[in-house]
Amino acid sequence: MRLAGKSALVTGGGSGIGRATAKLFAAEGATVMVAGRREQPLSETVDAIRGSGGRAHYTTADVSNAEDVKRLVDNTIDTWGRIDVLYNNAAVFIGIGKTIAELPDDEWDQLMSINLRGMFLCSKYVVRHMIEHGGGTIVNCSSVSGHLAQPNQGAYNVAKGGIEMLTKCMALDFAPHNIRVNCICPAWVEIDFNREDLKGRHEEIERLHPIGRVGQPEDIAPAVLYLASDESAWVTGTSLFVDGGYSMV
Q1: Residue 83 belongs to a domain with what CATH number?
Q2: Of the four, 33, 35, 106, 126, which is 20 to 30 A from 13 by CA?
């Protein structure tokens, strides 16, 4: 029960890594608010948590919209009384296979709005609450793509690189307020929004990971739990790679 007595907000909680993490947070004693744009997947996540004896609610929200984020934070505080943990997980996986010269302007804007602006907005409004209540923990979902140049996906890598620097700056700014900020860096994880990209390339992509397989959401969630829990009380501003060895080769 490593999150007993704590309240967590998980964005992008309707599927994939967000769902796996929300379920694990609840199993470890947290009350959980899951957020995302689509109601049905969020409802399924909440049903799964409640079916296992956990406590959860959901709020539909577009993390790139400031008014939605304010409403999400207010709903979470109204429901659970506080926010101790924020897991910024919401993201889109677009622009892959295109150079900057080929990328439509709207795909660039969408990537930056959701993958980077969304983390800024959620962190901005949650941090204000955490300062008032004596501290908290923020975990951002970055990627190996935030550290490594990769062909034909410059926009995605730029957004993830921005998350890396945002994480470090937030960790520095808010350490005096007892707020820790870290990020998690997966490689290829099989989830809804990249399943099409994996089709026909599964063996090729598996070979990029020395461990010999792509990741699953359940491979990532325990690492997020570690950064969210008091076990990592002396860890801030760091990037934890959970990548099957991808970043070594």
Answers
A1: 3.40.50.720
A2: 106
